[in-house]
Design goal:
mainly alpha; 2 domains; 5 helices
Length: 129
Amino acid sequence: MFAPKTNAQANLFEQACDPRNLAAQNSPACQQVEEQKTSDQNPIAGPKGILQQVANVFALVAAVGGTILIVYGGYVFVTAGGSIGGQRATDSPTRARQARTIITSALTGMIIVAFAWLIVTFVNTRIIG
């Protein structure tokens, strides 16, 4: 259903509206095909549409934010006091758990945003564009 077009499907009527074909130059069907080619640029959807640009910006912001959260989670983990089990009086197992939660949440969010971006890009390039 969503398979890419084969060469035979894509070029089935390519020669019918060839500009070198004298009969095709005045054909209303070929003129309609040419008009449609020039109006194919959809400003909302498609590979260069607004939806793709918004998805690109959203993915970039999520990647930067996720990276910052991972670095922050690493900082919290390092300053948690060493032992995860809290065996020393200065250890903080809750801070270590908090750091682990921050890191796993950031990674999970980045993976979800990456898959969402892939879906939007696939739809815009393969199905719409």
